[in-house]
């Protein structure tokens, strides 16, 4: 593929606490603020604790999931007395780090998340055509896969106006999703992995900004296909738990006939359908969203060699 | 030791949801209620979802930790408009399953809990002299250690009047504490282990009630010595996370010089003191209680052969 020139990354925002009970990002951001970490080479670094009220309450959110508030509709809705806290907060963050879709938006927005699922470190990206994000993925993939946790890319194909998550406010953006870690708990192993991933990303941004060019290549990404709910009784209550063969086996190919649920009375329910890759298996926050797990296809994408386009 | 005759166990209460985000007990109790499980041989079985408001909210408690409300002082405090929900609920439960310390109290109370710590299955007992509980421990120890998770006994030496937990309401009582399981998540492996432990306990109670006698023996128990808090800055904020060598290593002997904390800036803090056994390492609910982990001594106790004393 032909070399692509990409506009420079002058500034990056590192965000934590978008979900108040996902503690890795909260403590990473606080430590960066304590260290007054405001520059990485020539790149400006902004750190934001995005949902302080939810962090203080030790909950995912207080009135509405903040990471579902960054659609064009909600970002432009008038603020009234009855506007939910998180919608208000999303508009503040959009003013600080965006506005989304504008030339003033931060060049790169990284939002730090945790999951109770056994997903290792995932970069969750929207556009698949984004060469910069592909390169960052590749770097983390080679570094981290060798040392501590598997690194994967998940792709959600949602148009920008409907994209509901914080990272959609930046010109480029991705979420770093790491697990398993219980909500409300901070684990050293996961703290260290995320810190390493951020350090590598910032090192790469410095090299890129100073004119270094990077090889092209391919990247494997998991593309969301559908969600699977728990089986339910006539009153809508779940009647089963994730089967122990599926539990902790995110990204292990699920084939027709594999057990996926165990009912509370002991029966086993099996998967029927095309071979797909499960992820977010038994994620705590998805109980209320009626999602037992997601299913994805795995595809390989090519990305071109890149270098910085001079201003 | 001489054979001991023990009063019969006519009835047992199995309780779940004392902490509303510890889901194994909630779902075990609901399934037993759905199956109309009211007898095990000649033994009456009562099942109780003890803190339904906290279960509905998906939180440990709503106004006060219910499992700290069963002291004589709180159980006899007058109910006023400002009485906290959980204190009110404790008095209701004491009326239903107690009164604590009376002849009317349920013969055996089993309360089902989860922890985010890697503790396997623990029986948490108050009195060390209780032959019945020692026998139950022994049975679970031999059955479960062989199959799926380690089984241990933890002993808290608190006089009955000051005992704050639900199981103190029964004539005999223990908590079954199983982990690791994130709050708000239900795992099949842990559901199955607790179900197996309850089935074994009920089988044993049937045998005991029908006149079967049981050999004496010894049981190893961990006795609480002290709690260790996180290191904190001058504003009282934690400055470190449990070190990854200690994380998930509950009940592995901690020796002077072993790392116990990693500060957010990367320093390692070491343990100083006598060799002791850590437990409840990085338990989510203990962050607010300012407990990073507990430390215990391990001791061996003897218990006598027992048989039922006829009424």
Automatic annotation (TrEMBL), chains A, B:
Recorded GO CC terms: apical plasma membrane; cytosol
Pfam families in alphabetical order: AstE_AspA_cat (PF24827), AstE_AspA_hybrid (PF04952)
Cofactor(s) this protein cannot do without: Zn(2+)
Localization: Apical cell membrane; Cytoplasm
Coiled-coil residue windows: none
Keyword annotations: Cell membrane, Cytoplasm, Hydrolase, Membrane, Metal-binding, Zinc
Domain AstE/AspA barrel-sandwich hybrid, first and last residues per copy: 218-297
Keyword Lipid biosynthesis: no
Domain Succinylglutamate desuccinylase/Aspartoacylase catalytic: 9-199
Cofactor note: Binds 1 zinc ion per subunit.
EC number: 3.5.1.114
Topological type in the membrane: Peripheral membrane protein
Principal place of residence: membrane
InterPro entries: AspA/AstE_fam, Aspartoacylase, AstE_AspA_cat, Aste_AspA_hybrid_dom
HAMAP family the UniProt entry points to: Aspartoacylase
PANTHER family: ASPARTOACYLASE, N-ACYL-AROMATIC-L-AMINO ACID AMIDOHYDROLASE (CARBOXYLATE-FORMING)
Matches recorded under NCBIfam families: PRK02259.1
Family: Belongs to the AspA/AstE family. Aspartoacylase subfamily.
Protein name: N-acyl-aromatic-L-amino acid amidohydrolase
Organism: Poecilia formosa
